[in-house]
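Dear Dr. H.,

I hope your travels went smoothly. While you were away I took the liberty of generating a structure for the chain from your last submission, since the lab meeting agenda had it listed for discussion. I wanted you to have the full record in hand beforehand rather than looking at slides cold. The sequence, exactly as received, is reproduced here:
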Amino acid sequence: MTGMTSTERPFLNRSLAEFGTTIFAEMSALAVRTGAINLGQGFPDTDGPEEIREAAVRALRDGRGNQYPPGPGVPELRAAIAAHQERRYGLTFDPDTEVLVTAGATEAIAAALLALLEPGDEVVALEPYYDSYAACIAMAGGRRVPVTLRPEGDAFRLDLDELRAAVTGRTRLLLVNTPHNPTGTVLTRAELAAIAELAVERDLLVVTDEVYEHLVFDGAEHLPLAAFPGMRERTVTIGSAGKSFSFTGWKVGWVTAAPGLVTAVRSAKQYLTYVASGPFQYAVAEALALPESYFAAFRADMLAKRDLLAAGLAQAGFGVFRTTGTYFITTDIRPLGESDGFAFCRALPERAGVVAIPNAVFYDHREEGAPFVRFAFCKRTGVLEEATSRLRTLAA
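The corresponding predicted structure, in token form, is as follows:
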């Protein structure tokens, strides 16, 4: 099969033709083929809290969620999401009209963009960006306008003047991610305030991906954009149980927003999965009610793993950028005498027995990301120790 018909029209919708197989699938397959340690794809290699796993088993046995759950999500989970937002951030949402459960954050992103964009609308997104952003904008017929986060010292920074200049009369929404994957940057209060002022001034919608809200380090603070003046009625906030509780396979995400926005997103979402993850929704409702001690221990564990991997990468000769959020570290391969992240990552399993992700896949301006490579530290300590031992062979 060539993927072409007799009329030479490709099978794949041309708006998706540029994307192909995701880099995560390619690099994970490379890890399996070579036996390398996979620090590329961002999934933990241990399950989350035992009591939450047992809550899912209990729901299965009790017959809760084994059939189609309600379209917006089970009431227990919607109430738990609203309580979480109020307890942590002082944001009040009506569980019945302002909360929507989705099949992971990825579906939430897709449904929001499909619902809110018309063909030709421009979306300003912070570059580098999670790869589904670009594909979802394309499927909605929108046009992405990247604003690049650039290295400044040991971190990546947003140029607010560049952000303002990117907004035109065709801009429909801003797509914001903080804590930011893949750079590990957490936007500051001043940066978020400037984004909010711009959105209000230009009457823009904002979709904000906050799935790493519980993973912030070094005194950084996660601040929801919806809490800033003028943002409550124009912001779609996306969260995820997978990142906060280490059950990524359960695919439980959510949207919180004003009623009109939730209704719009739900209108698109119902024709994607309709519903998903029934029994797991009940378990996530219990997870969101865990005491602060769980979240503190979770952060402390990830911080120790960040420091372990960062030290090993520095010893191996990488330039290491400081991660203040997420569970990823971005590195610069130029100190190793390299400049092509794609070639470096494809050769790394054979050279050192480790898999990483080239950051260039997250850029429209590929040259901006060419020398940067991302590693995930959401792995067991022993795995990270073995990976850093292997990587140190590069320094030799």
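Two observations you may find useful: The chain has 14 helices and 15 strands. The chain has a mean pLDDT of 95.

With kind regards,
E. W.
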